[in-house]
Amino acid sequence: MKRTLPLIVILISISLLGLVVLQVSWVKNILEVRKGQILSKVDEAGVAVSADLSRAMYTIPGKRSLLKRFGIGSDLSMRLLKTPSVAEKFSKKDIEEKIHQALKGSGIEKVDVEFAIINMYGNAEMVSNNFAQKFYDTTHNKLRFYAIIPESLMELDAMNSYENLALIVPDFNVQVWESLRWVIVGAVVFMLVIFTAFYITLSALLNQKKLSEIKSDFINNMTHELKTPLATIALAVDAVRNEKVQSNKEKLDYFTSIIKEENVRMNKHVETILQSALMDRQELRLQPIEIDVHLLLHSLVDNYELQLADKQGSVEWKLNAATHVVEADETHFTNMLSNLLDNAIKYSKEQLLIRISTHSTHKHMVIRIEDNGIGMNKETVKRIFEKFYRAHTGNVHNVKGFGLGMSYVKSVIDAHKGRIKVDSTPGKGSSFIVEIPLKAKP
After folding, report:
1. Helix, strand, coil shares, percent, the chain, to 5
2. Most confident of 45-59, 270-284, 413-427
3. Is 150 strand, coil or helix?
4. Which of 117, 153, 211, 269 is most buried, by the most CB atoms less than 10 A from its CB?
5. What span, in angstroms and rounded, lies between the C-alpha atoms of 188 and 104?
6. CA 100, CA 21: separation in Å to the nearest integer?
7. Is the pTM of the predicted complex or chain greater than 0.90?
8. Angle at Cα 151 formed by Cα 148 and Cα 156, nearest 5°?
9. Which residues pair with 105 in a beta bridge?
10. How many beta carbons lie within 10 A of that of residue 346, not counting itself?
11. Gap between the Cα atoms of 438 and 325, Å rounded
12. What is the spatial order of strands in the sheet that 419-425 belongs to?
């Protein structure tokens, strides 16, 4: 796993980088193709409009036969060829409608254009609202010209004036991007999906690796925790079989008490593992009864009298909760508080001071258990309620366990619809604040 995971990350990263490069190249190519398509469609529409205007301007019934009969240079021919300008024959709205219909016919009706009718001397006879503003900005806008001339070469040769249709595609690149908006958005979304899948896969692999390491540590700890009492029991049994021990009642009682204590110790470990299995299956069943938390705390501290004496420890009390009776499962609630006290004692040095305080709010009873022990860093505080996780103990040795205690604490508090908060500073101690809902008043 140690060698495979980095290789997987490298290969997937290279693949993702390749996909990004290909996507960028594809977008660039499709943009160029789209630019050509839009200009081609605009030209198609421009030619169609100029041809339509030409037919409307220069087509007179019987004009060609008259031109052939009287000749191009005759007075009648010149009068026939003299036609009104586009601005004289059409309104701006008419031209806008023709351009819109032509763009629609080319399939680009959403493309915005500005237009002008320009005579042979370069003067604008008719312009759209924003044409003049866009005309000189050739960087961002595309300008196209289309001649408005008769289809007949005979009439073309005789013409002494002509006009042009000018079309401007404003903000050309922006409009190209806009026309491909959903294509690009789709490409980006699919890339994000791929990156998200990669992130989830990588996180799952890292979590699996971490879980594998934690479970290995758990198995090692469990083996050690069970092996030690078994070895002690085996030695005690061998001692009990000795005739000298059997004849001495005090020694016999001593070794049998050792066997009993180690048996209780093993049962406690087995019970902890079974509780963890129950929590995994979400089978933590509560049998709530009314519990006086103040009395329970005093009783638990009395049980840890020897451990406190060994650490030269003391307890400072500030029990200020006006309401200190809660509905909770006696076994699990007691074990939860016992675990918090046990941790405060285990993860400490000499001259231990534990501060136990309570207060009540309108809806909760708050229990605070604070110590002056070794404390925890931010990473440990973040992960302390993870199953199998054990904090680094620094210079504090002989701290045993499976890393299930705090996970059990969190599960019990969650089962009681409560909350727990941890504040800790390395070298200064830790503080656990538990909030348990009070019984609703009738």
Report:
1. 60, 15, 25
2. 413-427
3. coil
4. 117
5. 29
6. 39
7. no
8. 75
9. none
10. 18
11. 8
12. 314-319, 353-360, 364-371, 429-437, 419-425
